[in-house]
Specification:
9% helix, Neuraminidase, single chain, six-stranded mixed β-sheet
Length: 388
C-alpha cells in the first residue's frame, strides 16, 4: 500500500502538469527596432507608392460560375504554384496565373462543412488549408478534400499557420476575462487537437469596447505577434517563448481608455482624436509596415526612420499610397498591408471596376490590363515588389 501511494504521489503532479496550458514567457532581446509612430504621425501626409515600391505585377483572377469572389477578400496567400483567396464565404484556389482550380470548403452544418467562415490559413509544407469556423478549425487539402475538424473550445476570428504542427489563433472574447486570466492569443496543436500555450494580455484595468485583435504575421519563415494593448512586437521562438523584436513609441498618442461609440452611432467619436490602434502588421527585408487608424506607418530598418502616409479617398475606396508606379488605383488602406509578403512581394488586390475609374496617366501596363477586363470581373491581385 505504501509503495502504491508513493507511485501515485509521483504520477499525479506529472499528470496535472501535462494537462496544464502554459503561458508564453516574454524575454528581452539585446537589439530591438524602435518605431517612433508619434513623430511620423505629426508629419503625416499622402506619399506616392514609389517611396517603398519598385514595380507591380497584376494577376486577374478568372471568373466562372463556381468562382465569383466578393468585393472585399479577407485573405490572400501565394505560394510558388498556387494562389488562395478567401472572401468570408469560400476559399478559392487558382494557379499562379490566376486560372481557377477549385473551391475549398462548403457552407453548411455537416461535419465537413463550415457555418460561419471567419479566416483562412495555408500550410504550404503539408499542402493543407484551414478554415476557421468561429469555434471550429476545419482542415482540407489543396484540392478541397476534407481531412479533419477540430473543436477549439473558444471563439476565434483570426489565425496564422505558425508551423506544420501549430496554428496561432486569437481569442475573440479575451477582453471580457478578468485581469491575469486574459489570453489574447493561443497556440493550438493540430497533432493532438489542444491548446498548448497562451499569450497573456498585459492590460490590468478594464478593456473598453473596441475591436482589439492582436496583429500577427509571418516574415522569413518566422512568426511575429503584438498584443493590441502592448507596444511591443514579439518574435515567436516557440509556442512557450516570445522574444522582443520591435518597440512602438506612441508618444502623446494613447490606447483607448473609454468605449468606442462610433460603430454604434456611425459618427466620429471626439475621444478618438489621440487614440491609436494598430490592426495589421507586415514586414519586408527593408520595411516594417503598420496599418493603424491614423494612417499607414512605414519603418525603414536600414535608416531607423518612420513615415506615416494618410488615408485618402479615391472614388469609393480608401487608399494609402497614390500609384505613381503604374498609374493605376492606389493601395487600399482597409487591407494594405494585411496580406502576405513573400520574397519582398506585398500582396493586395483591386476590384476590377477600380481600373475603369482611373484615367489620364495610365501606363501601357494598365491599358493592356484593361483591354482584357470587364468592370464586373473578379478582383485583380497586385503583387507589389518592395525596395530592398
Amino acid at each position: 500500500m505504501k509503495l502504491f501511494l508513493v507511485i501515485l504521489a509521483t504520477c499525479i503532479p506529472g499528470l496535472c502538469c501535462g494537462q496544464r496550458v502554459v503561458v508564453s514567457e516574454k524575454h528581452s532581446s539585446s537589439q530591438v527596432y524602435e518605431i517612433d509612430v508619434y513623430a511620423a504621425y505629426k508629419n503625416a501626409k499622402v506619399y506616392s507608392l514609389s517611396t517603398i515600391a519598385e514595380s507591380i505585377e497584376y494577376i486577374p483572377l478568372e471568373k466562372t460560375k463556381d468562382c465569383i469572389i466578393g468585393t472585399d477578400p479577407g485573405n490572400i496567400f501565394i505560394t510558388s504554384t498556387d494562389i488562395f483567396v478567401f472572401d468570408f464565404k469560400m476559399c478559392y484556389r487558382f494557379d499562379r496565373n490566376g486560372k481557377f482550380q477549385n473551391q475549398i470548403g462548403k457552407i453548411g452544418r455537416g461535419p465537413e462543412e463550415v457555418v460561419r467562415p471567419m479566416q483562412v490559413a495555408v500550410d504550404s509544407i503539408n499542402q493543407w488549408v484551414y478554415l476557421l469556423d468561429y469555434e471550429r478549425l476545419v482542415r482540407y487539402n489543396y484540392e478541397g478534400k476534407f481531412i479533419k475538424a477540430f473543436n477549439l473550445g473558444f471563439y476565434s476570428g483570426q489565425m496564422l499557420s505558425h508551423n506544420s504542427h501549430e496554428v496561432l489563433l486569437d481569442d475573440t472574447f479575451y477582453q471580457h476575462a478578468k485581469p491575469g486570466k486574459r489570453f489574447s492569443a493561443k497556440f493550438f496543436s493540430v497533432d493532438n487537437g489542444k491548446v498548448i500555450s497562451n499569450m497573456a494580455c498585459e492590460k490590468k484595468d478594464k478593456i473598453p469596447f473596441s475591436m482589439c485583435n492582436p496583429p500577427m504575421y509571418k516574415y522569413n519563415g518566422d512568426t511575429f505577434i503584438k498584443d493590441y494593448w502592448d507596444d511591443m512586437i514579439y518574435r515567436v521562438q516557440d509556442a512557450s517563448n516570445l522574444k522582443t523584436y520591435a518597440a512602438i513609441e506612441t508618444g502623446k498618442l494613447k490606447h483607448r481608455d473609454s468605449d468606442d461609440q462610433s460603430p454604434i452611432t456611425g459618427k466620429v467619436d471626439p475621444k478618438n482624436k489621440m487614440v491609436i490602434g494598430i490592426d495589421f502588421i507586415s514586414e519586408t527585408d527593408r520595411f516594417i509596415l503598420l496599418t493603424a487608424n491614423k494612417g499607414l506607418f512605414v519603418y525603414n530598418k536600414n535608416t531607423g526612420e518612420t513615415i506615416c502616409t494618410e488615408h485618402f479617398k479615391e472614388g469609393e475606396v480608401w487608399n494609402n499610397f497614390t500609384n505613381d508606379v503604374t498609374g493605376g488605383p492606389g493601395t487600399r488602406s482597409n487591407s494594405f498591408p494585411r496580406y502576405s509578403i513573400q520574397n519582398n512581394l506585398l500582396v493586395t488586390y483591386h476590384n476590377a471596376y477600380e481600373f475603369f475609374d482611373t484615367e489620364g496617366n495610365e501606363s501601357s501596363q494598365i491599358k493592356k490590363l484593361k483591354s482584357k477586363l470587364s468592370p464586373d470581373d473578379n478582383p485583380v491581385l497586385a503583387l507589389i515588389k518592395i525596395k530592398k
